[in-house]
Amino acid sequence: MTETENIDRYFQAMADPYRRGFIERLSKGPASVKELAAPADVQLPAVLKHLRVLEDGGIVVSEKIGRVRTYRMRPDAFNTMNNWIEQRQRDMNAAFDRLAFVMAEVPEEKEN
User: Fold this and answer.
1) Which 8-state DSSP code applies to residue 43?
2) Which of 24, 31, 55, 60 is the most exposed place for a label (fewest CB within 10 A)?
3) The domain 3-105: what is its CATH number?
4) Is the confidence at residue 111, as pLDDT, over 80?
5) What does the domain layout of the chain look like in residue ranges?
6) In 3-state terms, what secondary structure has residue 7?
């Protein structure tokens, strides 16, 4: 999978408010599907679909012990997204630095 495809998966996974809510909850520690579904006011099948998107996106992992499936954040969940954002920030800062340099080279017009 290409870096662009990875970025697309991350942003797609983060695009839904329910999934962002699950991420907020899971950032505090592991939780079962039932624990994640309770405050969401969403049917269990929909919760499972959202969690599958987060898992396919590489943000969470799940483990089933007995009848309980527990989800947790991946420790490196946001590395790819952070790296992509940091590169855009570096590019943008470099563009502003070039603009400032050019503007410093242009003489100011004097008012008469």
Assistant:
1) -
2) 24
3) 1.10.10.10
4) no
5) 3-105
6) helix
